[in-house]
Protein 1
Amino acid sequence: MDVLEAIHARRAVRDYRQEPVADSVLAALIDAAIWAPSGINLQPWCFFVIDDAATLASCSTRAKAALQDAATDHPELAGLRPMLASPSFNIFYNAPALIIICATTADEMALKDCCLAAQNLMLAATAKGLGSCWIGLSETWLNTDQAKADLGIPGDFKPVAPIIVGYPNRAPAASSRREADIRHVGRAAWS
Ligand SMILES: Cc1cc2nc3c(=O)[nH]c(=O)nc-3n(C[C@H](O)[C@H](O)[C@H](O)COP(=O)(O)O)c2cc1C
């Protein structure tokens, strides 16, 4: 699969087979991630891997609780309340593995670098027959001091991209895209 095929085949996968992802495969995905470009080649990232079902279930429970608390202050999250309140809803969709890409420095450029690493990782997952999904709903919890302490994430690291990976149960249909808004800047304007 070439890179354009991977770009078009990637989907947010929310239904996984209960099949572990081998350490060597996870390592290959992270290797793809670190080949992303980064400002001044600082490579300001660190990868935390959770591939234990009990730990992931516990993380889901904590992340949902943190979001429910946040929903009190943020009306835009109110619609999520029923889902978050359901004990059967796993925020990580019962995926076998979660890779949390953390920025190791506080600057904005490091956030961009981590996002590029995340996209590389998701495309590599597609190329290897795996599904992936960025779980932004877990970020509120991941960025608490308590979560960082529980997961062994240093306090000065910033969790940026929590990405679940695993073997898809079924291939999701493609979501839609708006047509690209392309505006050509006329050369005449510069003469
Ligand atoms: C920053 C970011 C956060 C996301 N957070 C979630 C999430 O918490 N839960 C979820 O199910 N999908 C999440 N997604 C997946 C998007 O919903 C998905 O990428 C989008 O609907 C487009 O679908 P596609 O990825 O299949 O093309 C997130 C995606 C991004 C880029």
Protein 2
Amino acid sequence: MSAPTLEIRNLTKTFPIRTAFGGKAGAVTAVDDVSLRVAAGAVYGLAGESGSGKSTIARMVMGLTRPDSGDILIDGQSIIGVKSHAHRGRVQMVFQNPGASLNPRRTVGQSIRVALDAHGKPAARVGDLLDMVQLPRHFADRYPHELSGGQKQRVAIARALAVEPRLLVLDEPTSALDVSVQAKVIELLEDLGRDLGLTYLFISHDLSLMRNFTAEVGVLYRGRIVETGPTARVFADPQHDYTRLLLASVPVISDEEAALRPDIPLINGELPTAEELLALRQAERKSE
Ligand SMILES: Nc1ncnc2c1ncn2[C@@H]1O[C@H](COP(=O)(O)OP(=O)(O)O)[C@@H](O)[C@H]1O
Ligand SMILES: [Mg+2]
């Protein structure tokens, strides 16, 4: 069997907490002993609320942040200590905010050409790349401010594809978009993944986006993967309270799913935060 396209082994990253005067006031463990494998051509979903460590994992996979310990392998080769640009050709990232990731003073064509140049690919591919993300070729002459959020994200995807990567790290790629636009961008990613044989690490706080798109999910809570497995199994039979909490905010699509819906106690009519829920469960266990 060939090596998985992405393998993460016991990855840990802490950040110092600084006081207002720049002194050290302790450390926050952003990523805590995370391991996962993504087979070639597969889509792995990493879910978890804000602050759970998703972007820190993404940055380490991109070689932008160095882990404290653990290893990251791409096609079976460790990338730790390898100069970041050396593996950029194999891994590309799409960020949450397409507005901020595109240079406002460059046309769409210029932005894509910069990526092509950096990797020695012919500039003539700009038109092909726009075709691939289903934008008209004349969009090459437009500036980011002339595009909608969904169009900007398509340009960011085209730019990422310019270097013909094997693995795309998608860090909340649709979170800034309207729901209807979200669905279209996910559809595009699915088509591209199938046509180009791409492998995806798809990161989102929203589990509902993972239902059809991902084959496997990992649920991150405070830097740790608390549950992982085939997406269908995790949706049908979540094992961890925190997964149930995340699923409680996913719209149900059938009566069967409604019956499986976990029983989450409301606090003042609202879903509890993960912290409140875990405290509640602990209190329940003590009183048993
Ligand atoms: N550069 C940094 N310096 C200090 N703390 C950081 C830094 N980056 C992330 N963190 C902290 O690490 C934790 C995880 O952050 P992040 O990976 O951005 O989570 P997510 O993407 O899931 O919202 C948070 O507590 C965050 O404040
Ligand atoms: Mg993030």
